[in-house]
Amino acid sequence: MGAMLERDAALRALRRTVDVAADGRGSVAIVAGELGMGKTMLVSSFAPTTDAEVYWGTCDDLSTSRPFGPFWDIAAQAPWGLQSMLDAGDPPYRLHTRVLEELAAAERPTVIVIEDIHWADDATIDAITVLGRRIADLPAVLVLTLRSGEAAPDHPVHSALGVLHRVAAVRVELPPLSRAAVARLSGEENADWVYDVTGGNPFFVTELVADLPGDLPQSVTSAILGRCARLDPSSRHLVELVSVAPTRLPIAALDAALPEWTAAAEAPERLRLLTLEPTHVRFRHELIRRAVHSSLTATRRRHLHAQVLEALLATGGAAADIVHHAEAAGSTHAAASHALAAAREATALESHREAFEYYRRAAEFAHEFPIGDRAGLYEAYAEEACHVGDLSEAFNASDRAIALHREHGDVRGVGRCKTDRARFNWLAGDSRAAWEQAQGAIVVLEPLGATTELASAHSQLCDLATRSGNSEQTQRSGRRAVRLAEEVGNEDAKWRALVAMAAMGMQLNPAEASTLHSVIDGARRAGAHEPVMNGLVALAFFNLGWVRPHAALRSITQGLELVEERQRDVFRDHFETLLAWLKARSGHFDEARTLAERVIGRRASSTIAGLQAQTVLAEVAVRRGDDDAAGRLSDLIALVDEAGEPKLSGPVLELEIEWALTHSRTPPVSRTEQLLARIAQQTAVEGFLGARLAAWATVVGVPVDYHGVAPLPHAAMIRQAWHEAAHAFDAQGWRYDQALLLSMSDRENELAAAVHITQNLGARPLEAHLRRKMRAHGMTVRRGPIRSTRANPAGLTERQAEVLALLAQDLTNAEIGARLAVSQRTIEHHVAAILTGLAVGNRRAAVRRAIDLGVLSPSPE
To answer: pTM, whole model, 2 decimals?
Structure first.
């Protein structure tokens, strides 16, 4: 009763979603609140009042969640054939497709309720994300209940919620009850005391009031335990048994553990401690379970876990449940065998975080497995560790797998692990070791003839060649990999090689981006997810290299969405680092720094992504003039020299030259010549890397004879056309780079414009350099920043803010140009700068982002 007081507005909001869904406009409803706020009771009250078909699923608080947990519940209710798909271990996308098809075909609205998504497994989060993105066009409502503050800050549910809030989402936040509502429940005489003790938490209030007017408990826990004390021994045993099962206990297991449990359940149900469902028994509220569980001794808990474990083993319970209870009961054998089964199940469902945890547990009992199974366990463990970004654990597991494969005489296993290690080494920033491992894998595998492992090894070598800019090796290894992959049916190796070859083409010429897009689409259709990720990283990185920030942002956005769907955390670092780089280039230094520090906080700074993040941090420090700029740059140079990656060395050399220019220091001519000599040995000397190096070599006076394709700003730099280069950077919204190139000019108006830009950006070293130059030439130097731009939360200029306001009116570029009396081309440049500055991909998203930042006011309804 207490939970439904002061909930009319929340009920109306939920009912409204169903009314709108009946017209084919679905939505996501997120019901959030602290523990005990009545989320389940609200949804339970709402469901019977609609004409919709309602299906329920619950996420369980297991030590490691069961993949697709709530969808097993829904499968038992909905006539959609999900049960057979889950039993068969069908790929997640098939389940997603089936649910979407059923929702679209429904004759009346459908409501899917998923409770407690703060405990959701990764496969469930992926499914929620997929459904949420598409639900706006369906006659359906996805209702999610969320306990506020329960999920850790890095829990993937937050990313999923971020995606859902950008689509058709309604958030219903349940507040505590007012004192007046508490008084209605407890009576005026007890209202102050009950309100002070409970803070208006509906469940606490209800539990306390249930014991009135007798002796009042000193806490909610004692109130609950006082109610439990009324139970007879058999009912008490039942309540204790259910308390060791997070969230709920299958009825099949109860039948095996306590054959007469139904009689014992009458009193707990009457006292509102337990709730009986068709397939499970659970506590009416989690607080009750926790109170009961906390009252048990460690010995009693262990005994109860053992009892549940025996019942689950006898009834064929879920592997995730068995592992949880086996560990708590101290049954290492059951934990080991079922952890391995649960890991394989999670891998098949692409729940990589859960798979990693299960393999980690299984590895603790590896000695109980035969040597061949042990090798396979560590090999799979290494792969999952890589997926979640734990490279240290990936290396350790891979070492053990190789040793066991050798001991077992499994040559293919050794070659397979060497190929994997090549990838691990590259991700860790050790390209030399990566080449050694990939070539070593081929040496081991070649005598065996055409195998899937050999195709993968050549594909990995092709990928490494692309990353190092070796076109000849890319094509040679790529063609070999594709032939072998088609012969033995290795789709992943085939598409990895095709993506790498297409990426090599784009590295040399931006016109080849269309080829890379086509290959990525083919890999996506083939279900080759990792090659798709590789391709999107390449698109983002190379577009950034070719100074095409808007195209880079689109690839980053797609990549981050795919990271959430496919649980490839190791790729998150690359995409977020590239996003940080875009932010830095567009002058959003604080956001860039936050993103880069987040990446480094997750990974060692010596990994490839870590080194790129360090580069972003050094760039921000150098451009803002931070106190630690010189130290950051010096440390970064040492790290990049050790890694030996030209694609890392190039941006760092650019930063060295920039530092020398803005601080009137001797430019790094010798290092420029050394890197030119290294690049000259690679085919990529004619690509964006060679072009950018040639441009900056021109700045420091090193002669370069460059004839390849170049990004527009760098082509102008090679010709020493500084004004043209500055204009090209401005067209892409890279204002700092524009100012840096204007600083090469001797024209007062251009130098003054550059000072204006640096003031707005807070780029103190470049501003000081410009002022020194202007004074040396006897020019007038104006003081003071442009306050309006600095005050703008998005860092937009006054003119960009004007354009943004007109975008919000749905005006075209031509119409905006007419309003402001400027050309359409100029407006196009302003719009491009706005999109980059706000880190969005289209005009509508820019308006939404500006409203969120307070730059624009929402339109009146």
So the answer is: 0.68
